[in-house]
Amino acid sequence: MGEVIKFTGVTRIPCDAPGVLDGAKEFDLDTVIVLGRTQDGDLYFDSTTPDGGDVLWLMRLIEKHLISGAIP
Description:
Strand content: 5-15%
């Protein structure tokens, strides 16, 4: 069997949370925001930065790129 290569492009197929978190470890990230929903529907949030304004700014910046389709 050949080598398995992880797809890194944009997709509409759901991914598993542990796989997404593991994938983030491959990058030299200095700021991380984790947003999620548990199996019970509860919301989850954590961030490496304590400044709510910085968190919102980064979320809006990423939102802008998502809407325009410019996420690398």
